């Protein structure tokens, strides 16, 4: 790979990172708070590509064979060329950088969904010691799956009694074949994504395919299930009503 080819690859990579950063595509890979870092990284890649092209063209000179007035190591004006007359080339493995570029520019992968949720255990694996504050005002009150699951498991539903909650997630197959409500949470990026899983009773969404996003309204129930992957308790929600919704711009919690 020549130096000019390296610069072109860097330019494409930086441009694809910037393109993803200025649209909602980046939300499928990383948390929302990492957007400024992606923009800075994309700008640096583009700047490196521009500097590499400028340096290479300047070194070659107007005739394309080396800088004017500069002799090569052999004293005969080789201008950065090998003794056999060929320019320096880097390993061809650098062309593999084209793959993430094509992935960002040509492919729009979906966010992690039911398949990823079925392969990993629920993220509620550690005992939390914090006290949960009362739920905000409203009926129903909109909360996240993580908040509901934490209150149901670690607070025994104390702050959920006599309250209706509204949750948004995607439908995934449960351990007994019944649908569950799930949503992925990220620590940093999609590579460390783990699911929050809720069992459902009552007016359960049936007849909808996996990965369908739904909004459910329901109440706390003491019923618990078991995650077959990690053997951890899964809380349930007594569903009173549900409806299909479009996938949210931010699919992760």
From TrEMBL:
Residue ranges of region Disordered? Answer: 63-86
Question: A single Pfam family, by name?
Answer: DUF1980_C
Q: Where is the DUF1980 domain?
A: 161-252
> What domain of life?
Bacteria
Where are the bilayer-spanning segments?
33-55, 93-112
Q: Which residues form a coiled coil?
A: none
Record key words, sorted:
Membrane, Transmembrane, Transmembrane helix
Return the PANTHER family for the record.
UPF0703 PROTEIN YCGQ
- The identity of this protein, by name, is TIGR03943 family putative permease subunit
Q: Which organism is it from?
A: Plantactinospora solaniradicis
């Amino acid at each position: 790979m020549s130096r000019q080819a390296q610069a072109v690859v860097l330019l494409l990579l930086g441009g694809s990172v910037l393109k993803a950063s200025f649209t909602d595509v980046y939300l499928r890979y990383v948390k929302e708070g990492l957007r400024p870092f992606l923009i800075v990284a994309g700008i640096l890649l583009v700047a490196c590509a521009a500097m590499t092209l400028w340096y290479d063209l300047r070194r070659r000179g107007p005739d394309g064979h080396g800088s004017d007035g500069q002799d090569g190591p052999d004293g005969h004006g080789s201008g950065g060329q090998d003794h056999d007359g060929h320019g320096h080339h880097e390993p061809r493995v650098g062309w593999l950088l084209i793959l993430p570029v094509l992935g960002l520019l040509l492919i729009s992968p979906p966010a992690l969904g039911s398949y990823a949720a079925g392969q990993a255990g629920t993220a509620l694996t550690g005992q939390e010691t914090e006290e949960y504050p009362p739920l905000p005002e409203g009926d129903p009150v909109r909360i996240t799956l993580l908040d509901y699951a934490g209150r149901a498991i670690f607070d025994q539903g104390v702050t959920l009694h006599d309250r209706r909650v509204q949750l948004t997630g995607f439908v995934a197959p449960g351990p007994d074949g019944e649908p569950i409500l799930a949503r992925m949470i990220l620590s940093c990026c999609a590579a460390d994504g783990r699911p929050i899983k809720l069992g459902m009773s009552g007016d359960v969404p049936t007849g909808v395919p996996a990965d369908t996003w739904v909004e459910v309204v329901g109440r706390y129930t003491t019923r618990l299930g078991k995650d077959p992957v990690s053997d951890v308790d899964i809380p349930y929600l007594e569903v009173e009503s549900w409806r299909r919704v479009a996938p949210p711009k931010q699919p992760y919690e």
